[in-house]
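Write out this protein's structure.
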Amino acid sequence: MTSAMRGTQLARLLGQWHALPGRRRSPDYAALAGAVRGLLSDGRLALGVRLPAERELAESLAVSRTTVSAAYRRLRDSGHLTSRRGAGSWTTLPAGHRVASSGLWTPADDLNLIDLGCAALAAPPQLPDVVRAAADDLPRYLGGAGYHPVGIGELREAVAAGYDARGLPTHPDQIMITNGTQHALDLVLRLLVPAGAGVLVESPTYPNALAALAARRARIATHGVDAGGWDDELLLGSLRQGRPSLAYVIPEFQNPTGQLMSADLRERLVVAAQAVGTDLVVDESFADLALDGGPMPPPVAVFDRRSRVVSIGGMSKPYWGGLRIGWVRASAPLVQRLAALRVGVDMASPVLEQLVAVRLLAQADVIVGARRRELTARRDALAAALRQCLPEWSFAMPAGGVTLWAELDGPISSALARAAERLGVRLAPGPRFGLDGTLERFLRLPFTLAPAELEEAVRRIAAARYDLDYVTEPRWATPQVIA
C-alpha cells in the first residue's frame, strides 16, 4: 500500500530548503526539487510515498502553487516523481539505479565513490581461517533441528564471559543471541514498547533506532548530546518530567557524536529511570573500541538493582557487519519472554555464524587490539585533513568508536551532501540523525576507511563546500546517490 505524506510533515522534513548559501541562489522551485532529492538520497523520504497535493504543500511552505508545480515537474523530469491524474504524485526511482548495502539507492556504476555514509570496517584478515575452523565445529550440531531461539550455549557463555571481564557478572541464561544489534533492538522494542508509548532518545542518535521506534508508533522525545557530551540535568529532568516507557541511550562513544558517558551519570541515569518506571535500553555497539587507552566506565547495568536495564551489542563494529550476530543481556525471565516473542519473527540465528562468533571472541585480544590501532591512525588522519582543508569547522576528538561529529560553518549539511555526491563522496547529513529536519549544522564523518581515502574524501568535501559559496550558475544535476 502506498503511504501518503501530509504537507506539514514534508515541510518539517525539508527544513531550510530554500536557504542555501551562495552569491547567486537557485530559483525556489529548483531548490525545492533539490531538497526533495536530498531527502530521498539520505533515506529520510522513502520510495513509493505519495507526496502532498500541490496546493497543500504550497500552503505548508508558504510559497506559491506555481513554485511547487515547477518543482514537481523537475522531479518528474529527473525520474524521482511519478504522477497520474486523479491519483497524485509519488516518489520513484530513476532508471539504472539500485539499492546499495547502506540502504540508499545508488547508480550501478559508482566506481569512484568514497562512501562515508556507512560507519563500518571491512572484515579482519583472520575471518577466512576462522570460518573454515568453525565449519569443523558444525557436525556436532547437525543431529538436531538447528533451532536455538536464545542462541547456542557456547556463544552465550562467551558473551557472558565478556560482561564478566567488564565487571558485570552475567550468567549465560541472561544472554540471547540475535541477528545483529538492530535485530536485538527491534525485539526489545516489540516486547517493551506498546504502540503510542513515550520513548526518550538522544539527539543526535542512530538513525535506524529512530526507524525502529517509528515502526512501533512510539511518541519520541529527545535530549541533546553535543561537543561537551550529555547535559546531565536535562537528561535526568526529561526522564522525571516525561516519565517515558523506555529510554534508549548509547553511552560508549555515542553514535554519531563519539561521546563517552561518565560513570557518575550512568549511575544517576539508572536511579532516575527506576524511580519513574522507565526501562533503559543501552546500546553497547562501540564498547570494545576505546582508542586512547584510558579507563572505561563500568557498564550501565552495573548500577541496575531492579532488572530494568537491557543491554544490546554485537559483532558488527569491532569485527564485521556481514557477520549478523548480536545479543541482548537482560534478566533471565526477560530473555525467555524475548525468545517466546522471537519464535513468531525469525525462530533463531544461524548456527554456523554463531560458531564463527565463538572463535572470533576467543581471539578478541588480537583482533580487536588491531582494530583499535587501525582506527586510531584513521581517526588522526581524518582530523588532520579536516584541520588543514576545512579549518572553519569544529569537532571534539572522539576517544573511541568510529565516527567524528563535525559542526559546520552554517546550516548546510544537506546541501553539502548533495554537492559532494557530484564529486564522488557519499555523506550522511546531520538531519538524518535527528527528527524533523534539525541538525543542519552538523555532519557525521566515519573514520573506517584507509587514511588515503579519508584524506581524498576531505579534499572533495572541501571543494564541494567552496562550490556552495562560489558556483556562478545553479547546478542541480542528478545526484550519484538516489532514493
